[in-house]
Amino acid sequence: MSSAPQLVVHRDKELMAQAAAARLITKVVDAQAARGSASVVLTGGRNGNGLLAALASSPARDAIDWSRLDLWWGDERYVPADDPERNYTQAREALLDAVPLDPARVHAMPASDAGYEDADSAAEAYAAELAAAARPEDHGRVPAFDVLMLGVGPDTHVASLFPEHPAVRETERTVVGVHGAPKPPPTRVSLTLPAIRAAREVWLLAAGEDKAKAAAIALSGPGEIQAPASGAYGRARTLWLLDQSAASELPTSLYPPASA
Ligand SMILES: O=C1O[C@H](COP(=O)(O)O)[C@@H](O)[C@H](O)[C@H]1O
Fold first, then answer.
1. How far apart are CA 143 and CA 176, in angstroms?
2. pLDDT at 156 over 90
3. Terminal Cα distance for the chain, rounded
4. What angle in degrees, to the nearest 10, is found between the helix axes of 45-56 and 13-35?
5. How large is the ipTM?
6. Can you say how many angstroms the Cα of residue 44 is from the centroid of all Cα atoms in its chain?
7. DSSP for residue 16
8. Taking Cα atoms as reference points, which of 172, 147, 154, 166 lies closest to residue 232?
């Protein structure tokens, strides 16, 4: 099952971050009410961190039972644990250090000094962690994440799946080591498209002028090898959350007139 993308366009990136944070709170609260716990995959990058910061400053964040939330990552820069470029470190600064999470449910991807031989072995270990968390009803090797968020890069990359790169062609493994990424740092660990597509909902975040071309290309239907963002979809829903700048090169037929 896959879902056609739905688009929501907000006035600017601040409003987009606040609205997406509100949407995430509701989604997590609903999943916890329905299933006891919720699982969310975080993204790195400016838009993802903006959303986390908006969540941190929202009074409604207390509606979430943080102890019953599993957090995973879509990708990680393969750098030492104390490197400020790590997506995990940036997420901690934006939100995670301020909320009462259960540390056993915070599934950071390994740092380069965590004792693995290389990014490929680190990826294998993360794939094993995901497989161990998948329940029989998830029907796969990764949990059926409630929400998986992806920041869309200006070149249409999502997670660490870059256009024409070997990682975006992966059809078997759920997590791979990425070598020679065009955006620094060159070595990374990333979920693959098959793992991303196991999520119930995939949310693609694109705010800012530098995302306009990427959104237009990804939503105009090229293949996922050329535009990885176009291959990211959820089983129940695929949602593009944009601001007007990022939507400026889209045909207006793709979304209703911009709201707030
Ligand atoms: O390097 C990365 O970049 C993308 C997008 O980042 P942005 O700053 O252009 O919004 C992000 O989705 C990914 O997680 C991250 O590792």
1. 17
2. yes
3. 31
4. 70
5. 0.97
6. 7
7. H
8. 147
Q: Determine the distance separating the centroid of ligand 1 and the alpha carbon of 45, expressed in angstroms.
A: 4
Taking CA atoms only, the protein residue closest to ligand 1 atom 6 is: 45
Whether the model clears a pTM of 0.80, i.e. scores above it, the answer is yes
Domains of the chain (ranges, CATH numbers)? 5-254 (3.40.50.1360)
Ligand 1, atom 2: closest residue by C-alpha: 45
Give per-residue pLDDT as tens, 233-245: 999 999 999 999 9
Centroid of ligand 1 to alpha carbon of 33 (angstroms): 31
Alpha-helix residue ranges (DSSP H) falling in the chain:
13-35, 45-56, 87-94, 119-133, 193-196, 212-218
Asked if 136 contacts 127 with a C-beta cutoff of 8 angstroms, the reply is: no
The rounded Å distance from CA 136 to ligand 1 centre is 32
Q: Which atom of ligand 1 is nearest to the CA of 48?
A: 10
User: Which residue is closest in CA terms to ligand 1's atom 1?
Assistant: 45
C-alpha atoms less than 13 angstroms from C-alpha of 242 in its C-beta half-sphere: 32
**Ligand 1 first shell, C-beta below 6 A:** 43-47, 74-75, 77, 87, 150-151, 153, 159-160, 183
DSSP assignment letter at 209: G
Rounded to the nearest angstrom, the distance between the alpha carbon of 242 and the centre of ligand 1 is 15
Pocket test for ligand 1, best of 42, 152, 205 (most atoms within 8 A of CB): 152
Structural tokens at position 72: 């995973």
- Number of Cα atoms under 13 Å in the Cβ half of residue 60: 14
At 186-228, the pLDDT tens digits run 999 999 999 999 999 999 999 999 999 999 999 997 899 999 9
Q: Cα torsion at 45, 129, 114, 88 (round to 10°)?
A: 20
